[in-house]
Design goal:
Distance between the termini: 16 Å
Strand order of the largest sheet: 8-11-10-6-12
Number of helices: 5
Radius of gyration: 17 Å
Order of helices and strands: EHHEEEHEHHEEEEEEE
Shape: globular
Largest sheet: 5 strands, mixed
Structural class: alpha+beta
Amino acid sequence: MWQTTDAALIQKIKDGTVTLDDLTKEIQPGLPIAKQLGLKDGDLAAAGCATTGNHCMNVFAVSIPNVTPASYITWFQAAAAARNAGKRLPTNAEWQASALGTPDPGTDNGTTDCNVSIGTTAATGSRSNCLSDVGAFDMVGNVWEWVADWMPLTGSCAAELFPGTGDWNCLAGAVAANGGGTGALLRGGGRSGTLAGVFAVAATVSPANGTFPDFGFRAAR
């Protein structure tokens, strides 16, 4: 996620032609044209992109390789950043179709495999083996990814959807306490070892919760 008010740069973001050099160039010494956000808890809100997504107009979802993926994001902030870039959050079905073929279950050799180990996030696209049938990188591991769909908040997990994958399947047991709540679907499994995978899914967190260092998203056109 990048914040900028530069019209030419914004157009490149919307066109899908922006590069890392474009985003990191300086208007003048010490004054970059854009600022990367989603790197620590609260930096989006501090930059004017509220947790509600309201009035979040100059933060943009950008897909480029070799950067730290954004996290600490509520569903609403992700939706706003995607909108600003002329994109949207993918549906659960779209996410699933795009992820198919990514190694699952897989190992993590720390260099080319999907980043499913406990630890820090890997740079986007840096794990060359973490590739789906249609060429999408990092759909397993690294960060959990918000998708568009919501459902009742769930409080427990069930057996894996496909034996042998070990993937999270946390759509069981609607939360009844305090009237329940709403959960937004998260996919991919983050850095949770063999529990991460193509079929990892959870609705255990409110879409308003953005305090986690491994909650991110990807956008679709």
